[in-house]
Design goal:
Length: about 140
């Protein structure tokens, strides 16, 4: 039997040490309320301070089975709660413990924090299928 995984590791700068502390508190509060939830808001990833206590950078990474959509929801929530602006994005990888068709790949997402919306994404599996189909794809 094969186990498939989604992996990611990325940073987000929330501007100030106070914002970083607020983000960590929000994450812990959501994690506590998610324990009994059918659709947990912050499952599939961990949030940690990347730099010294006076820093503003947070490390978001999977804890074995990453949830890309949960990361996007949480970052959108941070953008709203902390009034973040600018572009932010991250990549993810799809892996598997055994060779399986469609079990490997990855993608990336870009979010406009100020507009509070996803502005683009890509999937290597979808790109490959389109390219093999003869569709016009960017290299």
């Amino acid at each position: 039997m094969a186990d498939c995984f989604t992996h990611f590791s990325c940073l987000i700068d929330v501007g100030t040490a106070d914002n970083a502390a607020r983000a960590l508190v929000l994450f812990q509060e959501l994690r506590a309320t998610d324990q009994d939830a059918v659709d947990p808001e912050v499952s599939g990833f961990t949030l940690a301070r990347q730099d010294a206590p006076e820093g503003s950078t947070l490390w978001i990474h999977d804890n074995e089975h990453g949830d890309v959509e949960a990361v996007i929801r949480f970052v959108m929530r941070l953008a709203e709660d902390l009034d973040l602006t600018g572009l932010w994005g991250f990549q993810y990888a799809l892996t598997c413990t055994r060779p399986r068709l469609d079990a490997f790949g990855g993608g990336a997402h870009v979010i406009d924090l100020g507009a509070r919306k996803s502005i683009g994404w890509t999937s290597s599996q979808e790109w490959l299928a389109a390219a093999l189909n003869g569709d016009d794809v960017d290299a």
